[in-house]
Amino acid sequence: MTDQPNNGAISNEEEAPQFSLQRIYVRDLSFEAPKSPAIFRQEWTPSVSLDLNTRQKQLENDFYEVVLTLSVEVKNGEEIAFIAEVQQAGIFLIKGLDASSMSHTLGAFCPNILFPYARETIDSLVVRGSFPALMLAPVNFDALYAQELQRMQESGETPTPTVQ
């Protein structure tokens, strides 16, 4: 028997990369308007502060949970008008990626998928609190991921974040 060329087919030992979104859900949600109802009678001159964070956790086998946390604090003058926070999560099936690609997928690609859901949830909370709609600007998670890698390299940390 002669050896046949592979012709680009993937052998059984080598798995084709796979990515599949399994579920998107709200993991945690909070809204606080400490100065209501008095805040509604004031002139509305808001200043918005946004804090975002991501974390990843390997579940079983090739399943990963990625959680994107958005925390928004809006002040009207010096007073806090409201604080809204959402932990938007997703379960992803990811397999066949090298360490660098896996790190990028979990650190940038998955948060890019979750962000529109988190943004809509924050907007809905704010409107239900009787405040003007709050449409957060898009976030470039690829740029944030690259900045974090650079920061880690400069500080001597391992450049590929580990999955918990």
TrEMBL record:
It comes from the Bacteria. GO terms for biological process: protein folding; protein tetramerization; protein transport. InterPro entries: SecB, SecB-like_sf. It is found in: Cytoplasm. The keyword Signal does not apply. GO terms for cellular component: cytoplasm. One of the proteins required for the normal export of preproteins out of the cell cytoplasm. It is a molecular chaperone that binds to a subset of precursor proteins, maintaining them in a translocation-competent state. It also specifically binds to its receptor SecA. PANTHER family: PROTEIN-EXPORT PROTEIN SECB, PTHR36918. Homotetramer, a dimer of dimers. One homotetramer interacts with 1 SecA dimer. HAMAP family: SecB. Belongs to the SecB family. This is Protein-export protein SecB. It comes from Pseudomonas graminis.
